[in-house]
Specification:
Elements (H helix, E strand, L loop, with lengths): L1 H25 L2 E13 L6 E13 L6 E9 L13 E6 L4 E7 L6 E10 L4 E6 L1 E2 L5 E2 L6 E5 L4 H11 L10
Antiparallel strand pairs: 1-2, 1-10, 2-3, 3-4, 5-6, 6-7, 7-10, 8-9
């Protein structure tokens, strides 16, 4: 009888531990931060500009689908089309590598606009945004040969490039310089 009771207690503790671990993992991570970063052009050492990233929202970890950030995501100094509200909510779905599309919705037309691709590491809070530029065709693109990149937290171009190369390691054939 005592042996059965001990097995039941151990089993109950294991189940309680698993439920607690799942609840902690699935609980949204609140992100409310402003951080300095650098906007620079890949492989053009003469261009860099200090900017501030503001994130205010929740990061949801999902075991069977993409993680997502829901909230405000705005880089001061990045001009958005006039009909987009930089203080509006964005919904970024991140794949297993921490990569997700940055889309803003126009409140006037309910159309979505792609601004760039976000690379984010939740643990280190490092972030890189490959910013799409209009190629004259009405749609944006980005190239590792000379595209615009924002990386944070960073105080200078060297730190920004280091973060970019770390977060895009699985994407880039050659590191950004």
């Amino acid at each position: 009888m005592k042996k059965n009771l001990a097995v039941i207690i151990v089993l109950a503790l294991v189940i309680l531990g698993l439920v607690t671990a799942a609840a902690i993992y699935l609980w949204p991570v609140r992100i409310d931060r402003e951080t300095d970063g650098i906007l620079y052009r890949a492989n053009l050492p003469s261009y860099s500009e200090e900017m501030v990233l503001r994130m205010d929202g929740s990061y949801f970890r999902k075991p069977f689908s993409d993680n997502e950030f829901l909230g405000i995501f705005h880089i001061d100094g990045i001009d958005l089309p006039d009909n987009l509200n930089p203080e509006g909510n964005v919904n970024i779905h991140f794949d297993k590598n921490g990569q997700g599309g940055l889309f803003y919705m126009s409140p006037e037309t309910a159309e979505w606009y792609s601004i760039g691709t976000v690379y984010f590491d939740l643990r280190s809070q490092k972030i890189t945004v490959a910013i799409f530029e209009d190629a004259g065709t009405g749609s944006g693109d980005w190239s590792s040969a000379g595209g615009l990149i924002f990386s944070a937290p960073s105080q200078d171009r060297g730190e920004a490039v280091e973060i970019t190369n770390e977060l895009l390691d699985y994407v880039l054939i050659k590191p950004i310089k």
